[in-house]
């Protein structure tokens, strides 16, 4: 479409917004200069239209049998090659592009969008022999740790359908726990792979930041965006990570990413002599349930029985990490995901112009339909960024280096850190009479242990610890950056020690 130059009124408003005092002659002069520059924008649009791909035709259907509310759309995309995922069915979180298949990202603002390109992780799954069987519901723009904010409705926990499934990869966890898929790929910015894994009793691994390319997934904030595997066993998580990991040449998050090791070999190793640090600050949080803390300490004892050397370790920065992450997750997210229409600017990665425009227009039309978590984030982040000139975001990103250094120092003394993934078991889904404040606590009250590792970039995996009151809990194992293999190794040893993980009744 043609690029329309600004009207005199629009130019005057822009000038005033930026503090320019322009007389009539100045405005006329700048109007001509701006219009001349906009000719390049029109040329870029013509060039892009000439080279942009078209979405392939892929069959899909809206799910009729969906008791957990976990399926967004069903499909069956055959593999493009043979490999380690041959014969396995994979579900994709609905913030990840599958070309030719509708994408909603849990939001009315994205509803109706159909991607033209597969995300890198989707292409890698298909090339490795996997069959993609559908998109799983996720929370509204992935901004919730519970499972009631999606515009398509709540996702229910297979262990107790009156309770939430965790978020934001809510549909993934519910489908895995219900046995409706072999593997899933989720996203994690504040715990969104690990928290639903803990609440639903499955395995969820947040890789080191940058290990798995984020290309083709809807961004929240580049410095905390992660994609990772969700499975029912640790070996399957290692298998899927081995397919997903590695530089794709398009993702700016992948900075000095090393060649991935053999994750499958790692999970076969025992843990005799491996040093396990029980992270003091991960227990006894204000919202912690004693039964969950006890289950995770008992899990540490099982690691000791398997040969690990277990000790208590303190990282005071862990308790401060939530504040660091919160500023990044409000100010940074408001600027990138909201003001920047998902992608923002100034990074040399792949963009999706069609998605950016669709979201920008949808966001304006459906602003009132956004969840309370999103509205609170936008109001907080926009105010802080504008009132304080983004200095708190810059401070938080600087403090993230100190947070990382705090974990790094502890990880010179031990090989992994263990702590509860979430401080309590899944809570009931909020009822229609719940207050906004109650919904906010239900949506974000569980991120204290997971979110700091998104800000620091360390890998962390959640595996099921012993159930509490008949509901799953999560043991989180965090390791050195790019030593995802050690996290998987310890997790697999624990799985063997307890004789496998329980499954939800079907």
UniProtKB/TrEMBL annotation:
Name the source's superkingdom: Bacteria
In Swiss-Prot or TrEMBL terms, this protein is called: Amidase
In what residue span(s) does the Amidase domain sit? 82-488
Q: What is the lineage of its organism?
A: Bacteria, Bacillati, Actinomycetota, Actinomycetes, Pseudonocardiales
Q: Which InterPro entries match?
A: Amidase (IPR000120), Amidase_CS (IPR020556), Amidase_dom (IPR023631), AS_sf (IPR036928)
State one Pfam family annotation: Amidase
Q: Which PANTHER family match?
A: AMIDASE, TRANSAMIDASE
PROSITE patterns xref list: AMIDASES
- Species this protein is from: Amycolatopsis tucumanensis
């Amino acid at each position: 479409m043609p690029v329309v130059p600004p009207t005199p009124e629009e130019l005057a408003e822009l000038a005033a917004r930026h503090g320019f005092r322009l007389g009539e002659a100045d405005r006329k002069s700048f109007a001509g200069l701006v219009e001349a520059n906009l000719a390049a924008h029109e040329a870029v649009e013509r060039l892009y239209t000439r080279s942009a791909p078209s979405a392939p035709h892929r069959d899909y259907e809206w799910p009729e049998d969906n008791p957990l509310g976990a399926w967004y759309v069903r499909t069956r995309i055959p593999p493009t090659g043979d490999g380690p995922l041959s014969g396995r069915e994979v579900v994709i979180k609905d913030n990840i592009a599958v070309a030719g298949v509708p994408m909603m990202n849990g939001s009315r603002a994205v509803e109706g969008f159909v991607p033209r390109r597969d995300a890198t992780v989707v292409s890698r799954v298909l090339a490795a022999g996997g069959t993609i069987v559908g998109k799983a519901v996720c929370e509204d723009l992935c901004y919730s740790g519970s499972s009631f904010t999606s515009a398509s409705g709540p996702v229910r926990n297979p262990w107790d359908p009156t309770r939430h499934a965790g978020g934001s990869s809510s549909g993934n966890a519910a489908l895995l726990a219900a046995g409706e898929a072999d593997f899933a790929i989720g996203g994690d910015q504040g715990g969104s792979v690990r928290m639903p894994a803990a609440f639903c009793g499955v395995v969820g691994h947040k890789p080191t930041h940058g290990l798995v390319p984020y290309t083709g997934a809807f961004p929240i904030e580049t410095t905390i965006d992660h994609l990772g595997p969700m499975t029912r066993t640790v070996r399957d998580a290692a298998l899927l990570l081995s397919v997903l990991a590695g530089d794709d040449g398009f993702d700016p998050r992948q900075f000095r990413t090393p060649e991935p090791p053999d994750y499958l070999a790692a999970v076969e190793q025992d843990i005799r002599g491996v040093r396990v640090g029980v992270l003091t600050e991960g227990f006894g949080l204000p919202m912690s349930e004693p039964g969950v803390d006890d289950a995770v300490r008992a899990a540490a004892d099982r690691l000791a029985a398997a040969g690990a050397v277990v000790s208590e370790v303190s990282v005071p920065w862990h308790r401060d990490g939530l504040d660091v992450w919160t500023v990044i997750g409000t100010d940074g997210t408001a600027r990138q995901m909201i003001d920047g229409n998902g992608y923002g600017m100034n990074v040399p990665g792949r963009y999706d112009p069609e998605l950016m425009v669709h979201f920008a227009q949808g966001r304006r039309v459906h602003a009132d339909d956004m969840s309370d978590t999103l509205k609170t984030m936008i109001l907080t982040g926009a105010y802080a960024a504008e009132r304080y000139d983004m200095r708190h975001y810059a401070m938080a990103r600087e403090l993230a280096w100190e947070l990382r250094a705090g974990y790094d120092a502890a990880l010179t003394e031990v090989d992994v850190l263990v702590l509860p993934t979430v401080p309590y078991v899944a809570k009931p889904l909020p009822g229609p009479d719940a207050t906004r404040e109650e919904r906010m606590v239900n949506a974000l009250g569980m991120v204290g242990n997971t979110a700091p590792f998104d800000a620091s970039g360390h890998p962390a995996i959640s595996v099921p610890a012993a159930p509490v009151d008949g509901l799953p809990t999560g043991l989180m194992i965090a390791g050195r950056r790019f030593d995802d293999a050690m996290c998987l190794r310890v997790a697999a040893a624990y799985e063997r020690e307890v004789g496998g993980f329980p499954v939800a009744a079907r």
